[in-house]
Amino acid sequence: MIVILKPDADLQTQNRLIDWIRSQNVEVQLAQGQRQTVLCLLGDTEQIDAEQIAAWRIVDAVKRVSEPFRRSGRRAHPQDTVITVGTARLGGGHFCLIAGPCSVETEEQIVALAKAVKASGAQMLRGGVFKPRTSPYDFQGLQDTGMALLKLARQETGLPIVTEIMGIGQLPLFADVDVIQIGARNMQNVELLRAVGQMKKPVLLKRGLCATLRELLLSAEYLMTSGAEQVILCERGIRTFDDYTRNTLDLAVVPMLHELTHLPVIVDPSHATGAAALVAPMALAAAAGGADGLMIEVHDDPVHAKSDGAQALRPKEFDALARRVFAVREAARG
Amino acid sequence: MIVILKPDADLQTQNRLIDWIRSQNVEVQLAQGQRQTVLCLLGDTEQIDAEQIAAWRIVDAVKRVSEPFRRSGRRAHPQDTVITVGTARLGGGHFCLIAGPCSVETEEQIVALAKAVKASGAQMLRGGVFKPRTSPYDFQGLQDTGMALLKLARQETGLPIVTEIMGIGQLPLFADVDVIQIGARNMQNVELLRAVGQMKKPVLLKRGLCATLRELLLSAEYLMTSGAEQVILCERGIRTFDDYTRNTLDLAVVPMLHELTHLPVIVDPSHATGAAALVAPMALAAAAGGADGLMIEVHDDPVHAKSDGAQALRPKEFDALARRVFAVREAARG
Amino acid sequence: MIVILKPDADLQTQNRLIDWIRSQNVEVQLAQGQRQTVLCLLGDTEQIDAEQIAAWRIVDAVKRVSEPFRRSGRRAHPQDTVITVGTARLGGGHFCLIAGPCSVETEEQIVALAKAVKASGAQMLRGGVFKPRTSPYDFQGLQDTGMALLKLARQETGLPIVTEIMGIGQLPLFADVDVIQIGARNMQNVELLRAVGQMKKPVLLKRGLCATLRELLLSAEYLMTSGAEQVILCERGIRTFDDYTRNTLDLAVVPMLHELTHLPVIVDPSHATGAAALVAPMALAAAAGGADGLMIEVHDDPVHAKSDGAQALRPKEFDALARRVFAVREAARG
Amino acid sequence: MIVILKPDADLQTQNRLIDWIRSQNVEVQLAQGQRQTVLCLLGDTEQIDAEQIAAWRIVDAVKRVSEPFRRSGRRAHPQDTVITVGTARLGGGHFCLIAGPCSVETEEQIVALAKAVKASGAQMLRGGVFKPRTSPYDFQGLQDTGMALLKLARQETGLPIVTEIMGIGQLPLFADVDVIQIGARNMQNVELLRAVGQMKKPVLLKRGLCATLRELLLSAEYLMTSGAEQVILCERGIRTFDDYTRNTLDLAVVPMLHELTHLPVIVDPSHATGAAALVAPMALAAAAGGADGLMIEVHDDPVHAKSDGAQALRPKEFDALARRVFAVREAARG
What are chain D's partners, defined as 3 or more CB pairs within 8 angstroms? Predict the structure, then answer.
């Protein structure tokens, strides 16, 4: 940790600050410039709260050299984590297509879609039963009924299921879900992170709309310190000034996260773009850019989908895309 | 609602779309341009899910003319809502200073600060007991113990208390809290919004770091459809590219929200700027710009504060600021 | 163009507004909702300045249905534009690698790099001679001397050259340049756009750091109304809250622009990421996502590069990447 | 300057880097942590190009401790700069209202408005004659004719004039202008900054839509190293995700800039908000928050304004606002 003092910092306060830092069992080394003094903190600096140092008025800025990614960080765990769910594998060289409708609607719909996406090469089935909606007046998902239908589709196809949890009140319903999804809006819902972590199941953690990578990884830390070991990170677009697409797909975080963490990273091009015509090019881009998997929305009748129809591919479109995705991935590995 | 069709939309699909919209009991009026056709939807369009229309591939864009702000909107409720808590009043011409430490730490601390801020003109006491922290390794608040201390400070001073809830598991502890705060990270935690709404107490709802005003008001709708009537909206800075301040205070939303909603709007200059030196100018700016109140962090020993010391004012600084705030507010009213 | 009136718009002013619009030779159709009135403007609405309508205080919002992309728009020119420079072709199915150093430094450097990138499959040579720098105290490019060296490298290899112009005072030096680059900082420098357009040469127009696609295409319109016909659009990253990469590569604009315009679209992964380790994955992603070309910085000694060394690939790295890029592009086409 | 090395940095390369830094006449001090090594560079580090160090692959990050604000920085020039133009003074405790129409349109218009704003307390007259427009098809200003009218209004009222220059080709027309404005789109037009700097006149430099404060001050450095001494900085809103206002007024930069620089800082609430109803509250907020002046658009017939009518105040509205602004400013000073 680096502490940059203000040019007019008085020596007495500076000494009191240094004493306080040393009282935290951290070593301090001074670098005295022409105009400013810099303190280099050495040792176990991760347990120090940067804000407490920033509160000293002689302090101009505090910069962390190393981040407290104790469980998610590469350093702690150099080998890639591989998620194994049934026959599906994700991460560490294993690529996984996750597909299905935005919302589970009827038995026919979800079973037919599950069979279709499996035939195209998908290894997991997605389907929302609790839907996070901006407005209380929009469709909120089939809930318990939807969960039963989703499990039926699993039974019919053998595909593991991924579905989103929206609060701790729904936990009992998720005991039998293969991969529990935490959505972008709940990425920093600490109560939910802790409770889901305690279930010790695979978790798919979506990046919040304006979350930094640091925040994403610290949310993974909440899951992992609570017991989860198999955490999948998911880039699904961020919010920027750009108004031509629903969100801005931030694809460079895929290789960046691979540097920072051993956890697998997937991409959701459906939510990232919000438009079916952009899903295929961005799915291909993500595969070429090193993603460990893709989560794609598929619907046989997008116009009558209960949610997000505008971004759903039809099964035939998904099938054609899947083949190109696998080919691109091979080509990109060189 | 306005539906803009693509230039190459075929007539047959167009007619199917119009039939579908009319089947929702909404009237459709066509405007046929040289190159494009626009559908104007008239009637009770708020119950239509814009996404379902956007899913038609002949649709280029869907634009809402009126928003589903059924309870929070000005139209539904032209008079300003006035929040009354004990002797404090907020909104509809009543200005309210809310002050106190970021975190409740000790009995001495919170009681002394409560007395100090009351003497300076604050009408409510803030103090965090559950702290939303990005990292699981940072101080998480005194929790139950802190709540007891906060209530003690209320007893000593008569000031109503405002404190943040972080999940439904904490609800029993909040039965006796005067104003329940929902923080920026939980602005779209639907489970929490619904449960807090059912308590029918005043709620202070903070704007998420990248929430639009539409999203903020729709979160207020979740609270209000669940039973809350007294909702205070709080601007606390948004996340932008700008890296010189912790967040970017978006002050123009104050008059903008006053146009859209009857709910009172306050500003938190402490979190918006993250730096004590910027709190006073931004508090004055917010008062001049029409805010119905301010929430300001005060600490007698910022350097040893358990959280956010860098943005805390000392009681003396707060006292001087409060006087200027009241004067500016008078002057701004002209 | 759609004009949404305020709910309380008085009829008299409304009629004056309609008369004024009709006086501009545009037809107006009214859609009267329960609460609000919407005007649909039909005919040649592109000549109407939306701001003039927005200035009426009874107007709530003005939304354009069609954009004034008269020369750059797909509608005006459905066929892809193909840029032809020497033996290089770009757009309409032709993919082009542009490579070279950030700055031209010495004869040996630029000639060796030109030969190397040509051997790896690059079809154009890039090299900065006028460098746009944030600080006046940083290296500003070799200028006239650099231009001579760049042309020498062209002579040695036959590769057409692309280099950035920073102001109209430099125009005479650019008479013999194959593709004139306008950088992100100058994307809205109208004087420069007009003057470069008059040269009737191919232009590489980089998207500004916070430019919308609408703004990018309207800058292309400035070039095209002045005489340029061959305009290459370049995505090079936008500025967002994300602080782990230099900029945020906004790759979804590639397919989006292909919908809106007939002009070719390339990607600059070097400036978009600012880090050599991210250049290869993002170059592959861009190729898979449908870019018509890539512009990549290559340097044989990044550590001693005069600018942007951190994002430069070494010639060997570029060679390996180029092979994967070509393979990915083939695979992505399916 | 702080250089953080990667955890796996090899000692040999580390020593080569240190030797290279020392060869630049800068001292290096090592801080060796458990996992990472940090180099503190001491001495005249401002002449070192951070990018050149970042290009070493053993380097993880480079952070500047002090910025190269040689002429604009507080350190170089602790006293506030006061701009004096005719009888108007701005900065160092002097507050200045600048007002007038977005565009100069007719003699009657500009002369009447000049008289009106002067009567309300404005000390300078603004009026655009060259208009930077996103689209080449929108009104571009009256140009030479407009300049003559603006000077006529100056003659009639004695008010100094502020107007925007858009390129070096217009320089001769600006020899007699009191304050030359450089607009947001040209904030990093280096050719223009240098040429305007050489005129040694007062300059009003607007912050770019996504410019950091560092970039704004370095653009001021371009002006100042070229000869300008009297530079006024102007906050006019930044571009964010927020879509309810035209731009996001970033008011906290006013006190932040006052810390960093001795140059005066004004605010343009008209462009920042784009809506007349928001101009007054934001003007009051800026005055309370410490701005040294305001630039406000006034038009006697906004509906027929040639540009930006939606954000123009009528003279009567401006008059009422001016009185409140002066009162708020007094109150805020405490």
Answer: A, B, C
